[in-house]
Amino acid sequence: MLKVRRRFSGITQCLVIQGHRVSMNNLNDPPGWNIRPDQQGGGDSNKWNYALIVPMLGLAAFRWIWTKESQKEIGEVKADYDRDLQAVSKDLETKYREALTESRRAAAHVELQLEKERQRAKGYRQALLSQSQQLLEERKQLQQERDTLEEEKLRETEWQLKATAVLGEFEEELVKRQSALCSVLLPRRRRLAMERGLLIRAANEPLATELNMESDLKDIFKNDRYCADLLNTDKRKNGSLMWLYLRFWQLQVTLEKHRRVQESLQGVKPNLK
């Protein structure tokens, strides 16, 4: 270990190396400024001279300065590192909070959208259920209307058959009345009795009343005098006006049937008789 101690006393400067005191220079004795081996009494100290000690002193000073500068730089680097670490930590914390806030906002938005979809799906289910119930009700109503329509059609068919039968009976009685008119053998009172019977039935028969047949029969009895030739044996060839009225009544029955069917389709129940 090298220990250096400088002492300035006047113009003398000494160097102590490993316990030996060595005179470095003497400013009052220029020729003796350098250390001479013959003046030091031999030993290891003879190897040292002024030119060797100066670099060692410079090296020690450089080491001390370098150590101080290194410590200063280390302190500055550490301070910079601490500041950077604090800034990075603060920035990371800020980004973490922003990311957390954004994540919560996104989660809230997704939850809101999910709730909307749930409500929409619920609305769809309710709409489908309501529509299904409505379809069932409509199907039930259509079936009822179909059954009602079938019943109405059956009634109208029955009514038409009945009306046709009634007209057939009037036709048969009119043929007999016209035959009595054209016969020279049957008395007049027989024909008049037939006419009174037809008028009474026309007044009491609902279909005849609806077709206003009573007044038409009076017109026939008054104006239909047509008879076939004397050798005719077909009673249906007698009469002219009565056949026109019979066709007219049949057309009225057909029209009345269509009117009743139309009223049934429109939901208006016909006045069946």
From TrEMBL:
It comes from the Eukaryota. Keywords: Coiled coil. Residues 100-155 form a coiled coil. InterPro entries: CCDC127 (IPR034607). PANTHER family: COILED-COIL DOMAIN-CONTAINING PROTEIN 127. This is Coiled-coil domain-containing protein 127. It comes from Aldrovandia affinis.
